[in-house]
Design brief:
213 residues, Phage_Mu_Gp45_N, OB fold (Dihydrolipoamide Acetyltransferase, E2P), 5-stranded mixed β-barrel, mainly beta, GpV/Gp45, rod-shaped
């Protein structure tokens, strides 16, 4: 009796397509849900199978990516892709608990042990209305040039070891005292309290003196 029941169950499941592996050949990323074409390892060819991914995250797997396919209702004609992987590009040797985002070009973001986030890319672009960085100990930039397209404001002291060069604009404006250790060279005139260093005169018994030479 149980043998006959087992045979009937086997015959019933033989007509139901189980989950299977496939290799992606094309991804259409234009719609609300991505549609893929894939070649199954059993020789089947999938057309416009839906690729489901978690909310808040999306990727366009390159051709050659492996896929896990689930036929809904046991029918290959209504299959969905529930996972993809590409062994040639996946970051390897991650430590337990580490998480990474990566692309086939080598860009990557790795959440590493020790609460370290490592980012590697050729160009890092950030577009926002307000960017706020709170670094309780230090913020460092190792770069030959640091540019600002408009005003730069510092609430504390600005220190430098390589000098200060200002070109164009309205020059330099300082409100407060200036303490100088060393010499100062000026190619133009210098004024103090409205008095010209280059053309000022002094009152003398025989009349005003000549300007400095």
């Amino acid at each position: 009796m149980w043998h006959e029941v087992d045979q009937r169950i086997r015959r019933a499941f033989s007509n139901v397509r189980q989950g299977f592996r496939a290799v992606l050949t094309h991804v259409d990323s234009n719609g609300g849900v991505q549609a893929v074409q894939a070649d199954a390892l059993a020789g089947e060819r999938l057309q416009d199978a839906e690729l489901f991914q978690h909310y808040g995250y999306t990727s366009n797997p390159p051709p050659g990516s492996m896929a896990m396919v689930l036929p809904l209702g046991g029918r290959s004609s209504h299959s969905v892709v529930i996972a993809t992987e590409h062994g040639s590009y996946r970051l390897q040797s991650l430590q337990p608990g580490e998480v990474a985002l990566y692309s086939d070009e080598g860009s990557k973001i790795v959440l590493k042990r020790g609460k370290i986030i490592a980012v590697e890319c050729d160009a890092f672009q950030l577009n926002c209305k307000t960017w706020q960085v709170n670094a309780s100990e230090q913020a460092s930039f190792t770069t030959p040039t640091l540019n600002a397209s408009a005003q730069f404001v510092a609430q504390g002291q600005i220190s430098g070891n390589g000098g200060l060069a200002i070109q164009g604009g309205g020059g330099a404006s300082v409100n407060g005292d200036i303490k100088l250790s060393g010499s100062m060279n000026a190619s133009g005139d210098v004024k103090a309290s409205g008095k010209s260093l280059a053309s000022h005169t002094h009152d003398a018994p025989n009349g005003p003196t000549s300007p400095p030479k």
